[in-house]
Target: L-fuco-beta-pyranose dehydrogenase
Amino acid sequence: MTRKDTVPLNGRTPSPVHLSRLGFGGAPLGNLYRKIEERAAQETLDAAWAAGIRYFDTAPQYGLGRSEMRLAEALRRFDPDQVTLSTKVGRLLLDCAPEEVTPEAFVDVPQKRIVFDYTHDGIMRSFEDSIARLGTDRIDMLFLHDLDAGTHGQAGEDENLRQLFSEGGYRALTDLRDAGRISAIGAGVNAWRVCERLLGEAEFDGFLLAGRYTLLEQTALDSFLPLCERRDVGIILGGPYNSGILATGAAPGARYDYAPAPEAVLERVRRIEAVCTAHATPLIAVALQFPLAHAAVRSVIPGASSADEVRRNVEILQTPVPPALWSDLKGEGLIRADAPVPEETPHAA
Model:
C-alpha cells in the first residue's frame, strides 16, 4: 500500500490528507447496539489494515471513548506513515455517577456523561482528551461533531455556531491546523445544510456526512455538493446504508436513520431491490458504490463490527454493477437523473 493508492481530501491543505476510497467507521467498535469483545475489535481493525484500508475515523461519543481507546491499540501495530486518522470535537466526556452515564445507543461503556461544548476551551479540551485516548501526538482531521439542528434543534444549532465563531471554537481549530497538530478541519454531521451554512461563514477542508447522499437521499445535489466541488471541499460519506436498510433490504426490523424504517421508505427500497434483482446484483453493492461516483466524495466509510464484515465490505465494493442497472434506477425515478453513477467498479482501497 502506497500513497498512490489513495486520494487527497482536497488540493488545498498545506499538509495533504490522503484517504483510501474505502475507509473504516469506528462507531461499532464503541459497542454500538451490542457488546464487542476486545479481541474481536482488534481482529476487525487488523482485517481492515490487511485489506488495504488506511483511513480510520472515530469519535469520543463512540462508546464514551471506547472506540478511540481500541483504535489506539491498533495504531501501535500500524505503520504511522500510512495511517490517516480522524476524530471529532464538541463532546466532552466527564466523570459522573452511574445514574448519569450517557449511553445513547452504546452498551458496556465507561462511567462518563457527555457535555456539548463548541467554544475555544471546549474544542481544545476535547482534542487533548482524544490525543490521550488515541495515544498519538497528531490527528489528521478534526471534525466538529453533531452541532446541527438534528441533534440540538434549530435554536441549539444557532447557539453552537455562535460558540464556534464568537467564543473561539473555530479559532481553536485553525490554530491547531496552523501549528501542524492537525492537517484538516471540518464537521461530522447527519445533515448537509449545516455544512453549507458553515461554508458560508468560514473555510473548511472537508466534511464527514452521514447518510445524506445515498440511494435513498440525493437532495445534497441541489446546492451543497456543487458548492463543495467549486470550493474543493472533500466529502467523506458515512452511513452509506442509511442505518442498515440499504444493506438488509426491506426486511422485517429494517432500520432507517437510526429508527425502524417507515412504510414509504420500505416501499422505495423494495422497488430499488427489484431493479437490483433483475440485474442479479446485490443491493448492498449498489448502495456502497453509488456515492463514490460523485466528484466531491473522496471516501466512503461503512461501519464494521467484525473481520468478516470488513472483508464483506471490500468484496461488495468490488462487485461489478451493470451500467444498465443505473439506467433503470434513473428511468424508474428511483435515483435522480442528475446523480453521477459509477462508470466502473471502484478499487477497494
In short: The longest strand covers residues 84-89. The mean pLDDT is 95. The CA atoms of residues 149 and 157 lie 5 Å apart.
